Amino acid sequence: MTDIFSVQDKVIIVTGGLGHLGTQFSQSLAAAGAKVAIYSRRPFSPEQTAAKFPGLADRITVYHASVQDKAALEAATDKLVATWGVPHALVNNAGIDSKPDGAADQNGPFETYPRKYWDEIIDVNLTGVMQCCQVVGTRMAAERRGSIINIGSMYGMVSPNQALYAYREARDGAPFIKAVSYAASKAGLLNLSRYLATYWAPKNVRVNTITIGGVKTGAFDKEFLDAFLQRVPLGRQGRIDEFNAAIQFMASDASSYMTGSNLVVDGGFTAW
Fold this sequence. Notes:
Layout: E1 11-15, H1 20-31, E2 35-40, H2 46-52, E3 60-64, H3 70-84, E4 89-92, H4 115-143, E5 146-153, H5 166-172, H6 180-200, E6 205-212, H7 222-229, H8 244-251, E7 262-265
Parallel strand pairs: 1-2, 1-4, 2-3, 4-5, 5-6, 6-7
Helix pairs in contact: 3-4, 4-6
């Protein structure tokens, strides 16, 4: 019997596949039998790949290609197609956010938020995804098959609750504002997915979003975490491996009738 949830021998690109979540996605897909091409903004040797993904290096190849560099994306995809063929799935995972310990103006009031930070985040989180879709999705469309999976955020569905960060002003003597650019980039990603879902539907290329909630990384202040978890119905952050199944589902034939959808995996945060 055919396993419709299988990703065996599917060629899957994961952008930002060496980061916290990206490593999980890449590793789990390769362990499930997929051939994983990681597009990374920094060079990564075969020896480093073997060390990072023990026992899976024959199924994982890292290409030096930033999502901000369309020429590099084209070159990497040319090499990938020559080696493994046209990808079956693309996971647009690469993304950035304002740093909690960044410069004061990076986390300051909206009224004085510098354009340079807006441009930087939009360029990676939205324009970078668009470019990856152009480069890879075009090839998928020519094959009349493919699944594009855009990694969204709960802050693409709802506005950041600034009250969660109020403790920072009391502690540090200056207001801390969750910046507008990340939320705007992830909200834009939702409609980019819908746009491409309808645009490429005649070519049988599916485009969906997976919206992810708070991930447990150990990098959060206790004050923030205590306040945040009061707003999560399940009462906890997501384990870093709890999103792998959603990725595999969207990359497999089990989701063959899904396009333009938003699969929310956030512990219930956006349900309230």
